[in-house]
């Protein structure tokens, strides 16, 4: 299923080994081949998104006096048209929003929800074993009740200044009148075909007419999505959940059920009862700053903070630099140990409290760091944080996530939006409803609800939100926002962000350097080192080899969107591994 050109690091050096590519459940969307310049911008307001059309549209909103909330609605709606492989109206997301006027940080959870007819074993085969991943991604049972529109409506109603309808006009024009598909979109269509699209006639008709992808030099249109956007502009976000658009979604989902009769379907209350949840940010003092990120059901935020805390215990960061091999090795080790905790403990807090604060307790971190240091060759297991005297759950295999995007916006008023959204696998389930790519986020639940007679914490239950690695993040210095960032990247998101924050806050690299420096990611006992990074490795790679952790080189499909305050001005940088673009107002 996976094919890529791997370089395996062994004791005798690097040796080339052929294997296949490109669908990796750990590497959701491959990085763009070749080297692109790193897009940067600086000014009083900055937009960084994964696509130049989205960045341009969002910047126009800011020029018209809109807030970061207005620009966010525009950017995400445009991405639903021009980058549908990664995010869209039928997906979900997490938002951190800094309200400059009230000096408060809002956290909005727009994650997808399992419908009320869900059952824990929906992604098991009739014999009771987990369904093959590729098969599961296309199942109707994998589609969660979308939260993106509800989140956008919520943040706009609270923080927007322009009309809701006006924020959707750029996306309506692009869907109705057309745009030239980007190289990345065309590659993603080919990738989706390799994963499998035979179950979706609508996908084939739109993205593979006559069996071929759209032409790069011809306008591509999505009339059905244009009509959906027009309805939302006219009737507002609630129409998606309780109006005519909701009824259309339910009809089309029911029609798809004829090809999958065992699917139990959605009820009207699945849509009408959906609610964006406001949560308390997960914050910790790390790297000499206050770092705030997404709490559970995100596991990525917890893993990011734990990784930084363990790294701080393992090495003297005051002496660290990008050329210090020991810091890189300790970073890789910290990632593994943070993963062991988050993949065991994190779940939807609706069922029971996730011990996130206890997992960041300084005494617990010191204990974990000591064990990490004294048993380097031992695969880590979850720890018992303060207040827990037993392991209540079964231990699942690693979960994985796929197509995702990130948007970071700072407006002239000082408001900040750090927003990560997703439809999961490339083009989600590949099912289309009302022109929208339907997510397959419910594959983020554990396929097996119990292991060894114990329930899995992240098991599928009606009304629950699956664990996610998305981790939009804000960094504060002396109570003021200093930096905002986030990235796609599936399960590796906290690995990517921990390296970027290390570069920004400890190595004092520029935003351009911070997003462009190489990534490393620990996956089980394997170390992945980025192949052909935008900025070359600052040290010989053989210095990163350890006897207990085999390593390999491969491309990394991150998409960091970073904005940082430097000398009173905001500086943005977009990850060149995708089509990211940073733009600014003077």
Question: What are the salient characteristics of this protein?
Answer:
586 residues; alpha+beta; seven-stranded antiparallel beta sheet; 17 helices; 21% strand; disordered N terminus
Average pLDDT, all residues: 92
Which CATH-level-2 architecture?
A: 4-Layer Sandwich
Q: What share of the residues does DSSP label as strand, in percent?
A: 15-25%
The CATH fourth-level homologous superfamily: Gamma-glutamyltranspeptidase, small (S) subunit
For the report, how would you describe the main beta sheet?
Answer: 7 strands, antiparallel
What is the number of strand segments? 23
Number of helix segments? 17
Cα separation of the termini: 48 Å
* Main sheet: strand order: 3-22-21-17-16-9-8
CA radius of gyration: 22 Å
Number of discrete domains: 1
C-alpha geometry: globular
CATH topology: Glutamine Phosphoribosylpyrophosphate, subunit 1, domain 1
